[in-house]
């Protein structure tokens, strides 16, 4: 609690705070402070036109940030927040170009993590209560799911006044589902732990499958990538790293990185496995992607991007 109060004060002073969420760790700044937000882009080497997600602690802050919120978006917010879901909505005046990347929309999320939520609540008492935060990794690299990942990825780029909060391992392990709520029906821009079926159940609507011209950085062809080459569904060779569900035997001569028993564990452990492979200087990671819909589909999405379509 003491640390969280200190962290909220740092945000108010314009410093950065990296913090745990249930999906991945974020690198946070006061979403209304242009200079602080600019430092996030510098540290990440992120192109300026890539919008950031704004994190809030309560649905009653939503009208400050978004306009013309459709009924189905309110239903999603009420049913699934706090949770691993980001809603893209028409922006209100407080959502400036330096957060939205110049777009007329804003991405909002209420994370389901006790440290993230108490940080947001403390920050609301003394400041804007809105934290702009991308995943706390360099642009295009693997999202951190532990304190140690954040430290090794961006620790040296932070200043003395910045802070990293430690919340152990992220439970979900892959980034939030992003849902475009600017059309007549919801549209998934990035799959995640909130599945198509959950969205359809909550809203009673069919998801829009129409192509969208909204930018999502995860939709670049190479993303979420470790330094090691990621190869999907190929025969593993001596010296490779290997990632597969526990039911698959470890091929001879490879380094087994993880053996998840379930799809949930697969998501939870995937980015740690990438980090371990890089620490070991492995050249290649062979992955047997999980089959199925829902979370398995979100994992395959990340694996495809990590493998750059190879
Ligand atoms: O789980 C998550 O979403 C994590 C945690 C920290 O909340 N955050 C995260 O942020 O993954 P980031 O910046 O690494 O990815 C957010 C994605 C980007 O691809 C960005 O383009 C998209 O969200 N995004 C944000 N605002 C948007 C907007 N207004 N319109 C379209 N896409 C947006
Ligand atoms: Mg990211």
UniProtKB/TrEMBL annotation:
It catalyses: L-threonine + hydrogencarbonate + ATP = L-threonylcarbamoyladenylate + diphosphate + H2O. Its main location: cytoplasm. The keyword Transferase applies. InterPro entries: DHBP_synth_RibB-like_a/b_dom, Sua5-like_dom, Sua5/YwlC_C, Sua5_C, T(6)A37_SUA5, TC-AMP_synthase_SUA5. It is found in: Cytoplasm. Residues 1-194 form the YrdC-like domain. Keywords: ATP-binding, Cytoplasm, Nucleotide-binding, Nucleotidyltransferase, Transferase, tRNA processing. Gene3D superfamilies: DHBP synthase (3.90.870.10), Threonylcarbamoyl-AMP synthase, C-terminal domain (3.40.50.11030). GO terms for molecular function: ATP binding; double-stranded RNA binding; L-threonylcarbamoyladenylate synthase; tRNA binding. Its EC number is 2.7.7.87. The keyword NAD does not apply. It is an enzyme of class 2 (transferase). GO terms for cellular component: cytoplasm. GO terms for biological process: regulation of translational fidelity; tRNA processing. Belongs to the SUA5 family. This is Threonylcarbamoyl-AMP synthase. It comes from freshwater metagenome.
